[in-house]
Amino acid sequence: MDVENKKIADYDLSTITEMLVPFYKEASLSDKQKMWFCLSMWLAEAKVSPISTAIILRVLYEYTKDKDPIIKLVAPFIYGYKKAGVDIEPYKKGIEEKIELGDLNFSSLPDSSSPDFIIDSLYELLLTKMSVGRALFIIKRIEEILGVVSPFLKDPIFGVMRFNPDRYVIAEPINLKVIRASEFKGEIIIGDIISDGIPTELVVYEYLSPDKKFLVNTKFQMEWKTNMSSLPIFIPESSFDEVLTKLKSMRLIRNKNVSDALSALINAYMEKGKATIIEKVEGVIDERGTEGSNVGNK
Question: What is the pTM of this model?
Answer without folding.
Answer: 0.88
